Amino acid sequence: MHRVILNNKEFLVSDGTVLSEVLTEQGFYVDHPCGRMGKCGKCTVLVNGKEELSCLYKVKGDIEVSFLSKGDTFSFSGAQTTGILSDNTCFALDIGSTTLALALVSRDSGDIIDVKTCDNPQKAFGADVISRIDYCIKNGITDLNSSLCVAINSLISQFGATGAKKLYASGNTTMLHTFFDVDCSSMGIAPYTPVFLESKIANASSLGINGVETVVSLPSIASFVGADIVAGLNLVNMQKAEKHSLLIDLGTNAEIALFSRDSVLCTAAAAGPCFEGANISCGMGATPGAVYAYSPDGAKTIADAKPKGICGTGLIDVIAHLLRTETIDETGFMEDEVFEVATTVILTQHDIRQYQLAKSAVYSATLTLMKIKNIGFGDIENVYISGGFSAEININNAVITGLLPAEFRDKCIPLNNSSLLGTAKYATESNNLSHIINNAEYIDLSSNSDFSELFVENMMFN
After folding, report:
1. CB distance 96 to 175 below 8 Å
2. Which of 109, 340, 399, 410 has the highest count of CB atoms within 10 angstroms of its CB?
3. Across residues 449-458, what is the average pLDDT?
């Protein structure tokens, strides 16, 4: 047995124990975007003062472990908060793959009183839903559920005594399974069938949730189009849509809905966690030090901190700059091995290829839905962009890099966290969501020949 000292606590572990397992057992959740495969290099901790990958490091002697400073992800909810406590309140929760956002809502006025956010600790088990489903298949649901509930309880406690009785929750289908302690393994094996899609109501204490009595989830549409999209469609008043519009949710996965008053055509594009920085060499979430904007004048970082890496919006800006200066050509080829974004922050050829895969998936999925509906760009009224970084996205650069069609340039409306805002709306207005669910059709892109052809075509930077 060996001694491990961590946060001034000491405990014993067996010889050869993987350090990441030790950290998880002790309730410390280090990001493992690659699913503990030792590929991303982002689970680095200090072992006896030396940087080590926790997913690969095996304890062979007495060690002292400390964490590198990171900070929580900045999340722009888009909510207008009043700060005025009401006697009749409830909570609205968005369980994002990367970030949790909890809003205290006045049921009388519909106003959002305040919003608290934190990282989703499940990032310790993988960056995206696929890696977390894989973790569930191998290890069960317990770690995913318990880590999530601890974080949610922490957020609730930050509000103090509120008198709130109910918590309304949305998120993608996988996140809701983990929240309700339901095994999500079936979504990782064809035909990728979820255990439930319908709205669930549960006693909060039975889920281990403190501070409220009842938990209510919004319904999902399909395995990979969840209640977060339903909440977004509720937010934009789908039933009042005169023409076709698009809701594009950019996160660790890309969910897209093409909708009109009586129709929802939706899909999930396998964009991977590129926009969250998970498979980018210097990629990171929207935490202090992340480059979130870039121009010829240089990089801007979150909190004006020393540059540590690059997040989704910064990635889009840098690639747009490389295209404008012809540092990369239309194929994505870059003659130099790396491009220095800022001191210690670089972009590599591999990073550019990862972005090409992601942007082509989003662009091609959008065109595929439009082709199925037999509509053109002129038939689209609004393009709602949702996701943790939609507030800071440079639409012009998104067009230049091929993430969005040029025809959408003047139609884009950032929604910030449409899942949270749509859930808060549902909690106070009791909107009938059956209209959305009953009129929704899910398109599986993996078996769609149009998408396959478009995906290859749109890999290029045109």
Report:
1. yes
2. 399
3. 93
